[in-house]
């Protein structure tokens, strides 16, 4: 479950970045804002799409929760608590 | 003269339309008549707290019902507001003193005397004992200041500008004339309500009976697919993110149009963009996706000056001048804006000398932008007067159009031009991919130069070792390139004529 979620998170994250990065090359522990220039708008866009794919209700998270998700690993850990099987 | 706009807003309960507040968790909708009644309760509550005509309240809140209620209540009492964007200001006693606030409403922790929590506003709006008595009638004269708006410069103390009722009135009328918002429309607002123009869409709903949906910047995409609006009030960064999203969805949908509808819903009548230049490729993309997008131009100091719209639009321009405004181009090509009812003739809060640099005595604004008007009155903006390089032969080069040509290539994330020794133009490029696609970059350099005059040709291109980012100090918090820091980081290469990829 978690490896699938991580792979999906990498794909969706790569899709919102302003520069091309191979999803497999993303560092799960890098700061999404500082290292990958992720804007706040794109952060929610990424999470919205990821939640839709993983069938996790975005409403599970407050804006405070989202602010606390600083790395991809933070995101996958938070979603893993609510995720069902990943749909592609 | 404001009777048909602000005059009606403060005295007439609307008979149609709904306002919806959306966040990550869900939505709450009210009829506009209900909103109006609740704003009356908040107004009486403010009176009870000693706030009266001529006072000023600070609103330091995220977008939401409380912001709108306070704004309407203040208009109904002839109380000034000061919109203080959370994140740019900290609620404190100093803020109250600095801006002459009777009360400061905030949703952040604050214990200074005079600070009031958003929950108190929400509670007041529920109190039916505040449905009476009738509020004293108020009239907003054209020169009366309704609100202090702050410039959003990324450096230095924000300047504060008092927006006059007359300027709001002509802007509301001019926009309605060209876009004809009507029942059945739902305008989607996600930029901070501290930006006065975003409150125009709420005023418009109260005046013209259409719906409005208010959310936050962060929740915009999540709320958009629920709201399915007919109009989106956005900025280029939002549309660029949407474009990437639509492109990512494209392979799962039968057409570009259906992929775009998956993000925006199927009811879009038009998209509004402004506050920064939009990339021509982004504008074309949305037109091709079946979502008409209209770019405009204006500053805090001028409000909306020009706007493309369904009956008059021209590619590459920012539209024709709106009723009540006049655009003048001086001998240096700098755009000046004269208004029948200027936003104001000076800053209320700014360093000495700032007002004189921008405002002529009659309120005509020197924008600092370079532009020209074509024979049909469409304005074209070419760049900032500050971003002009003067060569040793006296020729002035506006860098923005050249940088935009380079950035049109998918291999380039950012491009900044410098002119070491006033003799050659050198580009520092942040590649879109690491390692950089040198072949694509060289081809783009050749293509760009082919379209330029000899004086404008880029002589060579330095590739940044790592993409510009906030982390490495080469992008601002607004994701704009920091020219001085980029030059400092690449100083040796920029100044060494042998360094970099030389133009073919």
Give a topology summary.
The complex is a heterodimer of chains A (88) and B (504).
Chain A: H1 2-16, H2 40-54, H3 63-68, H4 72-80
Helix pairs in contact in A: 1-2, 1-4
Chain B: H1 3-11, E1 18-22, E2 27-31, H2 32-48, E3 56-60, H3 65-77, E4 80-83, H4 93-98, E5 103-106, E6 115-117, H5 118-126, E7 145-150, E8 160-164, H6 165-179, E9 186-189, H7 196-208, E10 211-214, H8 220-227, E11 231-234, H9 236-249, H10 256-264, E12 270-273, H11 280-288, E13 293-299, E14 303-307, E15 320-321, E16 325-329, E17 334-339, H12 354-358, E18 365-373, E19 379-384, E20 388-390, E21 396-398, H13 399-407, E22 412-418, E23 425-431, H14 438-450, E24 458-463, H15 483-489, H16 491-495, E25 501-502
Parallel strand pairs in B: 1-10, 3-4, 3-5, 4-7, 5-6, 9-10, 9-11, 11-12, 12-13, 23-24
Antiparallel strand pairs in B: 1-2, 7-8, 13-14, 14-15, 16-17, 17-18, 18-19, 20-21, 22-23, 24-25
Describe this structure as you would to a colleague.
The complex is a heterodimer of chains A (88) and B (504). Chain A is an all-alpha fold and 88 residues long. Chain A contains four helices and no strands. Chain A has helices spanning 2-16, 40-54, 63-68, 72-80. In chain A, helix 1 runs antiparallel to helix 2 (40-54) and helix 1 (2-16) crosses helix 4 (72-80). The longest helix of chain A has 15 residues, at 2-16. In chain B, the strands form five sheets. Chain B has a nine-stranded mixed β-sheet. In chain B, helix 1 (3-11) packs across helix 3 (65-77), helix 2 crosses helix 3 and helix 3 (65-77) crosses helix 5 (118-126). The longest helix of chain B has 17 residues, at 32-48. Chain B is globular, with a radius of gyration of 24 Å. The chains are: A mainly alpha (88), B alpha/beta (504).
